[in-house]
Design brief:
Length: 134
């Protein structure tokens, strides 16, 4: 079922993080990064909905749930900036190194384990920051 509320999106983010950690434990590092990126996407969407005025949420939900551009972290961060929300300086720094795209779905192979561990740590920190904002 399509998430409809900020809490729905956060629940999906939690599940994606759990899946990413299981993939990492199985040494499927590329897959862990791919799924982990969706945890960040869903976390940011949760915060976007939470910070949107209740009357505007149905339209915002439709907007953030449509189109490939709404998978891009930089697009979602821009949406948050328009709502007056900015990442902490440390998270902003980590996100600048965040190279996730939906195009990972077409890649094969593995990523460096240490790189993946850092990537997943960023995913968890973004989720935790969002939870603190809700």
């Amino acid at each position: 079922m399509q998430p409809k509320t900020s809490h729905d999106f956060l629940k999906v983010a939690e599940q994606r993080l759990n899946a990413a950690e299981a993939l990492f434990a199985a040494d499927l590092t590329l897959d862990a990064q791919y799924v982990g990126g969706y945890a960040v996407e869903c976390s940011l969407k949760a915060l976007i909905l939470e910070k949107t005025l209740p009357a505007d949420r149905p339209g915002k939900l439709l907007r953030i749930s449509s189109g490939a551009t709404m998978h891009k972290p930089e697009t979602l961060l821009q949406e948050l900036r328009t709502l007056g929300v900015r990442l902490t300086p440390e998270l902003a720094k980590r996100m600048r190194r965040f190279d996730w795209t939906i195009d990972l779905r077409y890649e094969t192979g593995r990523r460096v384990r240490g790189e993946t561990k850092g990537f997943l740590r960023t995913c968890v920190e973004i989720r935790d920051w969002v939870k603190g904002q809700l």
